[in-house]
Structure formats: structure tokens, C-alpha cells
Amino acid sequence: MPSIGIFGTGNIAYAFAKAIVNTEYKLAGVCGRNIENSQIFAKKFYCPIFNSINEMNENIDIYLLAVKDDAIEELSEKINTEKLVLHCSGVQSIDILKQKNKGVIWPLQSINKESFIDFKNTPLCIESNSEPNLIALETFANSLSQSVYKITDKQKKYLHLAAVLSNNFSNHLLALAKNICDEHRLNFNILKPIMIQTVENAFIQHPKLIQTGPAIRKDLKTIDEHLQLLQNNKQLQSLYELLSKSIQEMK
Amino acid sequence: MPSIGIFGTGNIAYAFAKAIVNTEYKLAGVCGRNIENSQIFAKKFYCPIFNSINEMNENIDIYLLAVKDDAIEELSEKINTEKLVLHCSGVQSIDILKQKNKGVIWPLQSINKESFIDFKNTPLCIESNSEPNLIALETFANSLSQSVYKITDKQKKYLHLAAVLSNNFSNHLLALAKNICDEHRLNFNILKPIMIQTVENAFIQHPKLIQTGPAIRKDLKTIDEHLQLLQNNKQLQSLYELLSKSIQEMK
Q1: Do B23 and B116 reside in the same domain of the chain?
Q2: Are residues B146 and B160 in the same domain?
């Protein structure tokens, strides 16, 4: 089976390594900027350390650049290979890779080193620059996860935007709600069941069809009361107004 | 055990009735404006129909006004009783009830007639106007759910605000994300695992500590790209900017 060389020793590198060791692919080695972190990584996954990029070339079939978004391009420039080179970023285009054979394998999940990630159920969004490369990439991705989606570079940009809107911004709204609960000595966990259910329902039918709350009801009295409660936080007031307006206009 | 009389035959009335029939409380009857709906309700829960409010008084110990927010006050004015009268609204104050013995039992969950609600795990927020009434209400609430929270009228206002911010507005962000996915032929389900995990994590640690995305990273290049993608939707552009600013200021 093909061998995978991983660049980087951060969260994404760990998540991929954990997943790879459960497949028939071989984790051929790791290459990191920090030797100490590379040693910890190598020890954890029983794989060798590559001290230089050139050392890798003879041993591996797929280069997995699991490094920070803004480090991918520079690293790619240092790699001289005909083998398949992949990055894992949702932000960066496939075009920043300089190689002839290249692709993207983007796990759409929040990945921390500590948290248990069920990689088998993590959506992997893949794209490549040629049909044979895409086949190799798809085979690799299918071995790691049951949820593999072929997307184009343009689709990736919109998917990333959709993820920011829904996921990053919802998390922030939860943070704002948590602050309000803390300030008024309310147990934030009261909101957990409704949040879980709302998210689950949103994937059963279009969330606009199950929108609830004062904005969709045009309950101006409650909206005014809420704006009153937020009178010392002009920014949150504006946010509340804009979101309410947006809900009403989607209706 | 005390007998409960339910006013209303909508979603909330159904959810309470389903929960009550599994307790030692007795579902004494239903009183609805629409006779046909009352008959369906009565048949489903094997309970009598009360054709008038006066008919109820001798038979029940707790009046449960499970009617629309803006129908509570008018209904309350028609009820002449010394028994405990409850409404179920998160929006309305306890003060709109005219009775001497009153309270609120607010299920903080999205409730549809069709959807299966695990009422045992639905948070019930309760308040009452006297200690003995609160004890009776708490006993009743504890029989229905494992998650009962005593709150004040002021806390209820802030909790409702927090629920709108987190739940209603997140649902709308999901709707916006769904529209983007549909427009670009992306499977919206790709976003499900990250959304579920984000919500679950938000109740483990303060969501501001696990904020991800371009705003918290001050990744201006990605933010600009996203604003470009939204150039034909000025309102969503403003929303994106305001939410990004709010994230950066919370940091």
C-alpha cells in the first residue's frame, strides 16, 4: 500500500496520523520544524522522523502537508517531487501548491489534539488537478472516512464561507448568550437541549422553515424589550437588529 | 393526586398532556376554543372536554394555560378561581395572570406536535408568586422533567434574550449557510458534524475559548475574500462584518 509522509506535528497532523494507522496505508514518517515535537509525534505513532525534505522522497507516495494555512506555500516551494502532494486547508486554494501532482483533503471539523475525533465520520472535502490524482486521493480519503465529498476550488470557497457563517458565528452567538447567562446567574446548560435539537432539525428540513422567535413572528413588543435589555451594549443591539431584519426578509 | 386542566389544543398543550399522562397527576380535561380540535385532543388523551371555564373549577387543582402568548392575558381575565393558574410562555411575565395563586412553567425547547420531544429532558423554567405555590409548582414540574430550574421574572427576560441570540439566530445562520450550499450545489450535510460538535463543546467550556475562524485569527485576507463572495448581498455582508467585529472585540 502507498506510504504517507506527514509534514507538521499540530492538531491536523495528529488527527490524520491517528486515522492513517487504522488503514492499510503506511505512515512512513513525520517531518516537523520542531525536533522535540517531531520526536513526541514519532514515538506516539511508531514512525521514523525525516530530518529533511529530501530524505522523504524515496520513501513516500503521498506528501501530506498538515501545516498552518500560511505555511503551506513556502513549504510547497521546498518540495521537489513528482509524487502526490496534498494540503489540508479549507482556506487556501489548491493553486498554492507548486507541484505537478497535487490535491486538497480538507477535514471539515474542529480538530484539537486532545478531543476525540471520530475521523470515520468526519467529512473530507477533496479536490485534485487531474483525474488519476483524484482517483488516488479519493481512495486514500475513503480509507479514512465514510464521508468524502469531491468539490471544486470554487465550491470550496463557498463551503468555507458557509462554515464560517453557520459554525464560527453560531459559536460566537453562544458565547454572547453564555455571558448573559453568567451575568444573571442563569445556568447556561438550560439552553443545551434546544440548541442540539435546532441543529439536528436544520439538517432534516430547511432551517428557514423551522425558524422560531420574535423576529419571524414580527413580535415587535418582545424585540423592543430585548433591545432595551441590551441598551448598554450598542454593538450587540445592532447585531440583534440586523439579524432580526435578516430573518424577516428571508421569510 | 392533583388534577390538571389544560387550556388550548396546540403544540404546547399536546406536549404537556403527553407528559402528564405518564405521571401520577390526573389529566382532568381540556378546554379549547375550537370544538373539533378539543375532540381530537380529548380522544387522544382519554380525557373529558370542558365546554366552559366555569365547568372546570370544581374538578381541577391546576389550570395550565397552554395557549398562544398573546391569548394568555384575556383568558386569565375570564378565570375566576383560587386554584393555581400557570402559563407556559417564555415571553410573557407572570404578572399578566390576574389570579391570586399563579406561576409560570416554561419549557425551553422547540415543540412541534409531530416531533418527538423527550419531555423528561426538557428544561422547565418555573416561577411563582408565593412559596407554597412554588412548592406545588416545583413538585408538578419535577414529575414532568428531570431539568427544573427556579428563576425570577427578571432572569426569565434575560434567559429568553439569550435563547433568541443563541438558538433563533443560529438557526437563521444555518438557513443562510444552507442557501449558499444550495446555490453552489454543495451538500449541506457536510456541515452537520462540525455544527453538532461546536454546540456540544460550547457546553463543556466557554464558547469564547474555543472560537475558531478567520475573525479570531485576524485573517484579513480570508475575511476580504468572503466579503467579496457576498458582494451581491449587502445585508449579509454587513452581518458578516458585524459578527467578525464582535468576535474580535470579545477576544
Answers
A1: yes
A2: no
Place of cell 426538557: B122
Tell me: do A131 and A11 sit in the same domain. yes
**Same structural domain, A16 and A123:** yes
pLDDT lower than 50: segments of chain A: none
CATH number at residue A199: 1.10.1040.20
In chain A, residues 37-66 whose CB comes closer than 8 Å to chain B:
none
Q: What is the pLDDT of residues B176-224, one digit of tens each?
A: 999 999 999 999 999 999 999 999 999 999 999 999 999 999 999 999 9
Please identify, among B127, B151, B175, the residue that sits at the C-terminal boundary of a domain. B151
What pTM does this model have? 0.93
Q: How many residues does chain B have?
A: 251
Find the closest chain A residue to B150 by CA distance.
A186
Number of domain units in chain A: 2
**Residue B170: which residues within 8 A CB-CB, separation 6 or more?**
A166, A169, A170, A173, A174, A195, A198, A199
Same domain assignment for residues A56 and A166? no
Alpha carbon of B103: minimum distance to chain A alpha carbons (Å): 19
The answer on B163 and B130 residing in a single domain is no
A195/B199 CB distance under 8 A:
yes
Question: Does A110 sit within 8 Å of B194, measured CB to CB?
Answer: yes
Query: What does the pLDDT look like over B4-57, one tens digit per residue?
Result: 999 999 999 999 999 999 999 999 999 999 999 999 999 999 999 998 887 777
Whole domain around residue A59: which residue ranges? 3-151
User: Do both A57 and A110 map to the same domain?
Assistant: yes
Beta strands in chain A (DSSP E): 3-7, 26-31, 62-65, 84-87, 102-107, 124-128, 148-150
pLDDT digits (tens, 9 = 90+) for B72-131: 999 999 999 999 999 999 999 999 999 999 999 999 998 876 666 789 999 999 999 999
- pLDDT at res. A115: 65
ipTM confidence score: 0.94
